User: Fold Alpha-ketoglutarate-dependent dioxygenase AlkB from Bradyrhizobium niftali.
Amino acid sequence: MTADLFDSVADAQPWREEIADGAVLLRAFVRPIESELIAAVRAIVAQSPFRRMTTPGGHLMSVAMTNCGARGWITDHTGYRYDPIDPRTGAPWPAMPPVLRDLALRAAEQGGFTGFAPDACLVNRYTPGTRLSLHQDKDELDYAAPIVSVSLGLPANFLFGGMARSDKPRRFRLVHGDVVVWGGPNRLAYHGVAPLADGEHPLLGRQRINLTFRRTQ
Ligand code: SIN
Ligand code: FE2
Assistant:
């Protein structure tokens, strides 16, 4: 009886919302370490700056990107891929700081994925008006590992759809500190970000920073 009561309370944590099979939204999950995260992002950007990349189709992406970890996601006229070298600096991407690795592991556990060991973290910067169209994260070799996505700065409307591009996505308003984890049957769900509304965040100003952790190989 006591155990049952305890279980139902644990299941009803207001900050943990199951949004699909294998997908959870963890509200305010990284708030306790927000200063360390922001400092870590600044150090990454000092080494490998944000840049706008070109898609294989020749479109300049509106999101500016950089990476940390053993491999980084890049796109250019030849295609999308993970690469150990930052093409801008000619050097390896900045190492993944332990505070980031640890938070990705803990968040993945909350989503039911134990032992998540990301080797790449894509850092996206959205300024007002910036959007990310619906896509699947499918440049990784092994889909057993989830995607862990951390939101910092201005709020955004995250679009989370189904397995087909034509499935109507649901909208989730993500604010500073929220984390979304998706994997299992929804690992290849289409997702994107609606155009960012203007605003001013007390810690990050007129921008949203998103970190996505991946296991690429
Ligand atoms: C992504 O799909 O890579 C980023 C998602 C986000 O910015 O919330
Ligand atoms: Fe994505």
User: Anything to note?
Assistant: The longest helix spans residues 34-47. The domain at 6-214 is CATH 2.60.120.590 (Jelly Rolls).
